[in-house]
Amino acid sequence: MEKIHAIITGVGGFVPEYVLDNEELSRMVDTSDEWIMSRIGVKERRILNEDGLGTSYMARKAVKQLLEKTNTDPLSVDAVICSTSTPDYQFPSTASIVLGKCGMTNAHAFELSAACSGWLFAMDQASCMIESGRYKKIVVVGADKMSSVVDYTDRQTCPIFGDGAGAALVEATTEDMGWMDSYLRTDGAGLPFLCVKAGGSATPTSTFTLEHRLHYLHQEGRTVFKIAVTNMSDAVARIAERNNLDKENIAWVVPHQANVRIIDAVAKRLEIPSEKVMMNIQHYANTSSATLPLALWEYEKQLRKGDNLIFTAFGAGFTWGAAYMKWAYDGE
Ligand code: UT7
Question: Is the whole-model pTM more than 0.85?
Answer without folding.
Answer: yes
